[in-house]
Amino acid sequence: MDFVFMIPNTEEELKTQLSEPGSFLMTGGTDLLVKVRIGKIKPKRVVSTIRIPTLHFLKDKIDEIVIGATITYSELMDFKPLIKNFPLLYDAIYTVGSPQIRNRGTLVGNVVNASPAGDGLLALYLLNAKIEISDGSVVPVEEFVTGPGQTALPSGEYVRAIHIPKYDWSVHYFEKVGQRNSMTISIASVGWLIRCKNRIIDEFRIAYGSVAPTVLRLRDVEEFAKGKHIDEDFTHSISKMVEERVHPIDDVRGSAKYRKILCANLVYRMIEEGTKC
Asked: What is the CATH number of domain 171-276?
C-alpha cells in the first residue's frame, strides 16, 4: 500500500498533480481507501481535495441548488434548502453508512464511484441532476455514469459540483432494502416522484438501484403513468411492468429472482403514498 499522498491548495495544483500517471483523487476516502486496502486499485499517488476552498460550497439559486465536490453528507443534511426542496435526496443520503461515514463521505464521491447501489446516485437520477466537470462541461448524471464503477470523466479531470433543478412534487418516496437496518449495501432500492391532484398523475418518475449495471430509470413506465388514477389496478399494472424490466443478478446479498419479486412488490407502497395527492 505504498503511495505518495498529495494535498494541493488550489484547483490549479490539483490539475497538475492529477496529470501524473497513477494518480487517484480522494475527497472523503470512504470508497477509495477501501479499494486500496483490498488491492482493487494500486495508486502511485493519492491527491486529496481537503484543502481546496473553491470546491467547498453550497449554493441555493432560484431554479437550482449547486453542491460542491467536497461537501459531506452531514453538511448536506443540515442544508435547509435541501430539506425543503429535495426531501427525496435527504431521505436517500440519510441511509448512507453511519454518522462517521456521512461526516467524511460526499455526494460527488458517490457519483464518481458509480455503484448501481449508490443511494444518493439513485435520487440524483430521479431529480435530473447534472454533473459539472473541471473542463467546463456539464453532463446529465445518466450520461456521466456509463457502467458499474465507470464514468465519462476525462483523464486528469475531476467533478467540481452537482447541479439539481428545483421542481415541485406532490409525493416523494425512497426505500432501501438490505440485510440489516443500517450500514448496509442495498439488495434493492427504489425511489419515485409524483406530481398529482386528486390521485390523478400529472408527472411520474421511478428508478431502482442494485438491479442493473447502473441505476435503472424506467422511462416507459413513467410515460405510461401519466394521466392515470393511483389505485390498486394502476399499481398492479406498474408492478408487472417493473418485474419485466428489471434484470438483477445473483450475488451474496440476494438472488436475481428475489430481487425481481422485491422490486415488483415495492410498487404497492404507492397506494398508500397516493393518498397525499
From this structure: 3.30.390.50
CATH top-level class of 53-165: alpha beta
At residue 254, the pLDDT reads 77
Quote the pTM value: 0.94
Task: Enumerate residues 6+ apart whose C-beta is below 8 A from 192.
Answer: 126, 171, 172, 173, 204, 205, 206, 207, 270
Alpha-carbon gap, residue 155 to 177, rounded angstroms: 35
Share of the chain above pLDDT 70, in %: 97
Give the residue extent of every domain in the chain. 4-48, 53-165, 171-276
* Whole-angstrom distance, CA of residue 162 vs CA of residue 175: 23
pLDDT of residue 271: 85
165 has which bridge partners? 64
